[in-house]
Structure to design on (153 residues):
C-alpha cells in the first residue's frame, strides 16, 4: 500500500443505472437513497473529495425527469450512449457475454476509464453500500491510468 497522500484526490463514485430511477421498481429508489447516504457518510471521514454520479443510458426516456429524481437524492446525472449496441456486436462470444446480467448496459461501466477530470473513478452497481472510507483503495496506486477491479467483494 502506498503512503497516504497529502493532497486530496478528486474521486468520481459512479453508479450504473441502466433503468434510471424515476422509472425503476419501487425498491430501487430506496437502494439509490441508501447508497447515496452511505457515500456521503464515508466521504465525510475520507481524506478525499467524492462526487456521486449516476451513469444512465441516453436512450432512457424522460431524461429530465430522471435527472431531477437523481439530483433530489444528491446524485449527479450523466447521460451517455452505449459504446457498442448489442445489435452491432459481430463476435458471437462477445454477444453472448453481453446478453447476461445487465446486457449491453454493462458497457456503461467503461465510462469510469474516460473521466479524466477526476483522479480516481469507482464504478459500482446500485445495490452497494459504502460502510467506511475507501482511502486505502484509492491510494493503492500512484500510477496514472491504472485500473483495479473487484468483482462482488
Amino acid at each position: 500500500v502506498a503512503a497516504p497522500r497529502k493532497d486530496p484526490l478528486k474521486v468520481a463514485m459512479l453508479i450504473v443505472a441502466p433503468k434510471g430511477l424515476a422509472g425503476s421498481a419501487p425498491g430501487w429508489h430506496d437502494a439509490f437513497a441508501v447508497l447515496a447516504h452511505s457515500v456521503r457518510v464515508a466521504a465525510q471521514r475520507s481524506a478525499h473529495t467524492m462526487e456521486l454520479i449516476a451513469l444512465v443510458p441516453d436512450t432512457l426516456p424522460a431524461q429530465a425527469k430522471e435527472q431531477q429524481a437523481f439530483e433530489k437524492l444528491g446524485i449527479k446525472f450523466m447521460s451517455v450512449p452505449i459504446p457498442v449496441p448489442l445489435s452491432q456486436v459481430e463476435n458471437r462470444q462477445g454477444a453472448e457475454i453481453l446478453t447476461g446480467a445487465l446486457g449491453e448496459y454493462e458497457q456503461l461501466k467503461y465510462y469510469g476509464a474516460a473521466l479524466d477530470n477526476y483522479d480516481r473513478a469507482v464504478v459500482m452497481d446500485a445495490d452497494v453500500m459504502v460502510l467506511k472510507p475507501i482511502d486505502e483503495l484509492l491510494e493503492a496506486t500512484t500510477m496514472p491510468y491504472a485500473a483495479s477491479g473487484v468483482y462482488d467483494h
Q: What stands out?
A: Residues 26-44 form the longest helix (19 residues). The chain is about 25% helix and 20% strand. The chain has a mean pLDDT of 87.
